[in-house]
Every structure is written in structure tokens, then in C-alpha cells.
Amino acid sequence: MNQMVILASDSFRIPVGEWADSVLEWVIENLAGLFNVIKAVFQTAYDSLAWVLITPPFWAVIIVLVALAFWAKGVKLAIGSAIGLAVIYGMDQWENSMQSLALVLVASIVAILLSVPLGILAAKVNAVSAIVKPIMDFLQTMPAFVYLIPVLLLLGIGPVPGIVATVVFALAPGARFTELGIRSVEAEVVEAGQAFGASPMRILRQIQFPLALPTIMAGINQIIMLSLSMVVIAGMVGAGGLGGAVYQALTGLNTPLGVESGLSVVILAIFLDRITASLGGAKKAVHV
């Protein structure tokens, strides 16, 4: 009986993994040029941003970031940011942190540019929403480590596969929150805009988008937080920065390095979270 069950189980096996491997081999053979272009673009963006953050003296970068915190939320966040960034420098994790910040910013910008228009389109067209939702479910629930396998084969080691894996991993909240925000705008407000003869694009730009902005910013906040969490995992494919330091500490059982790099990740996460949360706090005025 047990042998029959085993035979039945073997005969029923669905070779999803082999199918995925075949698709990946086809992509590598036929789309290598496209991925070389993607790699060059992302590498240039990352190198440029990392150069901007690492080349100036650390205190000059701290002043700029503290000024940004003061503009976004006031004195308390500015003082907290100054202390946190000084702690990062004092732990000798400044260069690693700036490399990670560059990776997070590049990945977050790409994810925002893809997810926000996708969310708007999903809010406007129900058929698009029906297609996008299961794809976002898939992207959001797939273990993050799995994304590293195909990007490593397609793009090699370094920061670029880390950026691409981070974009895929962080994409879903931006599209979901944007669709939710646009759909949550009261129909009476939209009808008032239509009554005044506003075009659909103007209603979107001047009514729906401003009213949905706090929800959209919550999605952008989630994109940045997920990107920062992915930085550590991306260290396994040679992305460097704090992820590389955490991976080095893990493989070498180096407790001091693990604590210092992990604490630097936490400080950057709090800084970015407070900045993005404050930017989405105030509702914009509606003008038709």
C-alpha cells in the first residue's frame, strides 16, 4: 500500500522548478544584452550616489541630513538624527552605511517609479487590478532569498543584483497603497470636479492624488523600510555596505562587527522612516 502511494506521488509530481529553470536559461541566452544595459544603468546610478555620499567629509553629509530632518519634522528629529549619525561614524560604519543608503535610495526610487503609476492604473481599471493583485501577492509572500538566485545568474555579483532583488521585493506596498488611496477618495468629491468640467487627468492630478497622498506616502514608507531590510540579505551577493558587514560578521562569528553594523541599519531605518512619515503627514489643499 505504501509503495503504491509513493508511486502515485512520483507520477503526480509537477516539475515547476524545472520549468522555471528552463525559462531562466532562455532569458539568459536571448536577453543578455538587455540585462547588460540594466546592469550598466543601475551600476552608474549606484556609483554616482555612493560617490556623492562618501566623497565629502562625514560632517558635511551629517549637516545636510540633519537639515533635511529639521525641514521635515523639526528640532527633535534633527537632534536625534545628529546623534544617530555621529554614533554610526563613531562605530567606523560610516562608509558601509553610505553605501547601503545609496543602494536603498536607488532601489526605492525605481520601485516608486514603477509601483505608483501601476497603482493608479489599477485604481482606474478593474481588469488591471484583477491582474496586479495576485502578482503583488506573489511578490510579497515569496521568501526574499529566492529573488537572489535569478538575479545572481542574470547580473552576477555586486550591488546591481542587490538593487534589482530589492526593487522586486519592495514593489508591492507602493502599488497596493496607491490603489487603496485613489479608490478611497469620496465619489462626491470626484463628481464635484466633473461638474465643474475638469478633465479625468486634472481630477486625478488635482483632486484624487492630493487626497490620496498620505496613503501613497505610507506605501512609499513601506517601500523604503523593505528596501533597508533587503540590504542585509543583498550582502550575500556581494552588495557590500552594511549587508556585507553583517554577512562577514555572521560567517566569522564576529559579535562586535555584527552589533555595530546591525545598530547602524536600525539608525538608518529610524531616520528614513521618520522623514518619509512626516512628508506624508499633511494633506494638500485641493484646487480644481
From TrEMBL:
<keyword id="KW-0813">Transport</keyword>
<feature type="transmembrane region" description="Helical">
    <location>
        <begin position="49"/>
        <end position="71"/>
    </location>
</feature>
<dbReference type="GO" id="GO:0015871">
    <property type="term" value="P:choline transport"/>
</dbReference>
<dbReference type="Pfam" id="PF00528">
    <property type="entry name" value="BPD_transp_1"/>
</dbReference>
<comment type="similarity">
    <text>Belongs to the binding-protein-dependent transport system permease family.</text>
</comment>
<feature type="transmembrane region" description="Helical">
    <location>
        <begin position="257"/>
        <end position="275"/>
    </location>
</feature>
<dbReference type="InterPro" id="IPR035906">
    <property type="entry name" value="MetI-like_sf"/>
</dbReference>
<feature type="transmembrane region" description="Helical">
    <location>
        <begin position="145"/>
        <end position="172"/>
    </location>
</feature>
<dbReference type="GO" id="GO:0043190">
    <property type="term" value="C:ATP-binding cassette (ABC) transporter complex"/>
</dbReference>
<dbReference type="GO" id="GO:0015226">
    <property type="term" value="F:carnitine transmembrane transporter activity"/>
</dbReference>
<protein>
    <submittedName>
        <fullName>ABC-type proline/glycine betaine transport system permease subunit</fullName>
    </submittedName>
</protein>
<feature type="transmembrane region" description="Helical">
    <location>
        <begin position="101"/>
        <end position="125"/>
    </location>
</feature>
<keyword id="KW-1003">Cell membrane</keyword>
<feature type="transmembrane region" description="Helical">
    <location>
        <begin position="211"/>
        <end position="237"/>
    </location>
</feature>
<keyword id="KW-1133">Transmembrane helix</keyword>
<dbReference type="GO" id="GO:0031460">
    <property type="term" value="P:glycine betaine transport"/>
</dbReference>
<dbReference type="InterPro" id="IPR000515">
    <property type="entry name" value="MetI-like"/>
</dbReference>
<feature type="domain" description="ABC transmembrane type-1">
    <location>
        <begin position="97"/>
        <end position="276"/>
    </location>
</feature>
<keyword id="KW-0812">Transmembrane</keyword>
<keyword id="KW-0472">Membrane</keyword>
<dbReference type="GO" id="GO:0005275">
    <property type="term" value="F:amine transmembrane transporter activity"/>
</dbReference>
